[in-house]
Amino acid sequence: MEFNSAALEPYLRAKISADLKVTSIVRFGRGTSRETWFATFEKADGAKQSLVLRRDYIAGPIDPSPLDREYFIYERLGRTDVPISRVLWWEDDPKWTDRPFYVREHVEGSWNIPHFTDPDPLYDILRIAISKEHMQNLARVHAVDWQELGFEARFRAPARGEDAAALNIDLILDQLEQCRVDPVPIVLEAAAWMKERAPVAPRLCLCKGTNGLGEEIFRDGKLVAMSDWEESSIGDPAADFAFMQSMAPDIVRNGENIWSLQKALDYYQSVSGHPVAIESVRFYGLVRALKMAVFGQAAAASVHRDPDRAEIRQAWTGTEVNHNAQRILGSAMGWMGPLNPVLFNEVHLSVEQLA
Asked: What is residue 149's DSSP assignment?
């Protein structure tokens, strides 16, 4: 199915109401893992509604996790107090589409928070408040009773805290083998090196995987919907702080550090009742680099498989992201010198502390 008015209108009339008219269909320009579309329709009585449609790229996904697992996550989290967009249905009927997709409600808001990345001290209060809002909602995610919700049906969970990091790494290596197009010995070496330095998870919980600016929907300073669950897992909550994308900014005023990752972790402990060791966060920053290598290989596989219809972002991920992931791992193991700190800012990673 083409996501355009001519194709969507009869489909949504069959699914929702015979009197609706599609007024807008727009592809979301951000994001690299899958296609996201926004469709708005209007009924005869003037009522309007917007939907979100998610599907894999025609050449294949960048994240190798199954699309229907993402649907499963939204469906189960809809039974909790975690703020998400309510999932509506899964579609794979060949009568309508040759590429499965799912549909969820559109939550009004924006990923972009005006002035959040503005370093002007005038916006320090805003930046700290948004960071705290994010910490509160991560605490909600980590408090989910994933066993009661049946997450083990779609997730491999570690048996104990001592196994969390190793299982996380093994799952990444499994994904790598499913999509690998080139030999990546440095990734295998790094995985073994990291297992020798793995922290023990103090508890096992649902982890979101991808966090930060661009991953969540805000409205009036409040987080109203958590998005992008394709990297979620069961494991150490420290993993969720290794990729924060500006949500734990370092703010220094008059020589005083008034906000940082450590202060964000302290705040998280105050609202969740659970401490998170910054050393574990740094470790999972390297686990994130392993995932980057998987994204690179999956994207490269898509380009190899269908070069005429692959997205330009797949070519970029299959080259630059893949290359940078291997550089980060090599630097961490001491195979090469320190890298530009910009590569490490988002995970607050100091490779010397892991060597």
From this structure: T
Calculate the CA dihedral of residues 245, 310, 58, 1 and round it to 10 degrees.
Answer: 110
CB–CB of 63/295 below 8 Å?
yes
Give residue 25's domain range: 5-105
Q: How far apart are the C-alpha atoms of 253 and 244, rounded to whole Å?
A: 22
Judgement on whether residues 313 and 251 belong to the same structural domain of the protein:
yes
Calpha distance 117→350 (Å, rounded) = 23
Q: Over the chain (355 residues), what is each successive 10-residue block's mean pLDDT?
A: 94 94 92 89 92 93 89 97 97 96 97 94 96 98 98 96 97 92 91 96 96 92 95 96 90 94 97 96 93 89 88 87 89 84 49 44
111 in any annotated domain: no
DSSP 206-237: EE----STTTEEEETTEEEEE---TT-EEE-G
Distance CA 259, CA 230 (A): 29
| One domain for residues 90 and 203 | no
Helix boundaries (H) for 84-145: 124-143
Alpha-helical segments (H) within 26-123: 67-77
Residue that finishes a domain, picked among 49, 78, 105: 105
Number of domains in the chain: 2
pLDDT confidence of residue 351:
42
- Cβ-based neighbour number of residue 154 at 10 Å: 16
Whether 104 and 92 have beta carbons less than 8 Å apart is answered as no
Residue keyed to tokens 């702080």: 241
